[in-house]
Amino acid sequence: MKKQSTKEIILQASFDLFKEKGYDSVTLKEICDQCQLTKTAFYYHFSSKENLLIHYYDSVIDKISNKSIAFVNAQNYWEQIIICFDELLQADLELGPDLTSQLFITNLREDKGTFNFNPVLTDMCLILIKKAQDAGQILNQKAPNELYQAAAFLFTGYETMWCIKKGKFDRKQIMRQSLETIFETAPEFCLKNRIDPNQIFLI
Q: DSSP character for 5?
């Protein structure tokens, strides 16, 4: 089993503390004590507590990237596209609406690039979208980069509403239904049991 790096240890310990006590309640000293590190050692890896949030999605993208060869070689391209978005969504669920909100706040104060399109993920999704179009799994024949951009902004929109509503709706299913609409997914690949997205506004 691969040994965790100091950076990974800091990230794991800090997010455990954030989830337990809330982002604002956790001090840098507590993080250092939890990791048995000095502040100097912490600052070697991260410039601030806020900087920890910015790096949250790095490991998620790495996880998706490690699957890239299997994704591109798979035959059910639409499901592979869904898996990419599901991995990002699962990361949000693990982070929780409060910490995800803090991530938005951090980037609203100053754009830290957290929500920029990751080039590795983007390239992989563009390949999968084109393959899904050619295979007739998605019927929308607009340029893959346009479809991906629309899907990515849709994801961020639901992410924002999920934070506002404190995680009280089934974001995964509603997200998939909306992706099916954007991509015009072939009927045999669509969800059979559907829910009304308007339920979000009734919470």
A: P
